[in-house]
Amino acid sequence: QVQLVESGGGLVQPGGSLRLSCVVSGNIFSINTMAWYRQAPGKQRELVAGLPSGGSANYANSVWGRFTISRDNAKNTVYLQMNSLKYEDTAVYYCNAGVTENTNWFSRDYWGQGTQVTVSS
Predict the structure, then answer these.
(1) What percent of the chain has pLDDT over 90?
(2) Fewer CB atoms near the end CB (10 Å): N or C, the chain?
(3) Edge-to-edge, what's the strand order for the sheet holding 3-7?
(4) Distance between CA atoms of 41 and 35, rounded to whole angstroms?
(5) Adjacent-strand bridge partners of 108
(6) What are the tens digits of pLDDT across the range 101-113?
(7) How far is CA 30 from CA 6, 87, 104, 107, 110, in A?
(8) DSSP label at residue 2
(9) Is 119 within 8 Å of 90 (Cβ atoms)?
(10) CA-to-CA dists, residue 57 to 37, 41, 83, angstroms
(11) Longest Cα pair distance anywhere in the chain, in angstroms?
(12) Which residues neighbour 79 within 8 Å (Cβ) at sequence distance 6 or greater?
């Protein structure tokens, strides 16, 4: 089955940078949109950035100009480069991918396990 494995989270000081990675594996026919969401304690999960295959990225207003989403299709991997990190960026970050499996005729969303990003001085 399809799995998403995330890495790159950790502790960083305000103004610092982190790069998150998410590798999609399994019986993959194609991957459509790849995206990053985050959820802070006591808050709803929100879309951070999304990147359709062959399309343009979209970002939440709160991260515009600071975060960059990219993907390496040959490696089935999506990245989130996070710069100028703020305290408010502290959250669990989840990878999301729309995947069409070899055994299916439709695409559906899959989620990673989440990786903790903590911005603290």
Answers:
(1) 96
(2) C
(3) 3-7, 18-25, 77-82, 67-72
(4) 20
(5) 99
(6) 998 889 999 999 9
(7) 19, 36, 11, 9, 13
(8) -
(9) yes
(10) 14, 26, 17
(11) 48
(12) 19, 20, 21, 22, 69, 70, 71, 72
Place of tokens 């494995």: 5
Copy the structure tokens of residue 64.
Answer: 């515009």
CA distances from 37 to 60, 89, 94, 114 (A): 10, 11, 5, 9
Torsion of CA 22, 4, 8, 43, to 10 degrees: 100
Q: Report DSSP letters for 47-111, one per residue.
A: EEEEE-TTS--EE-GGGTTTEEEEEEGGGTEEEEEE-S--GGG-EEEEEEEEEEETT-SSEEEEE
- Residue 47 near residue 38 (C-beta atoms within 8 A): no
The count of C-alpha atoms lying within 13 angstroms of the C-alpha of 59, restricted to the half-sphere facing its C-beta, is: 13
pLDDT, position 1: 86
Question: In which residue are the tokens 């959820």 written?
Answer: 39
Q: Which amino acid is at 44?
A: Q
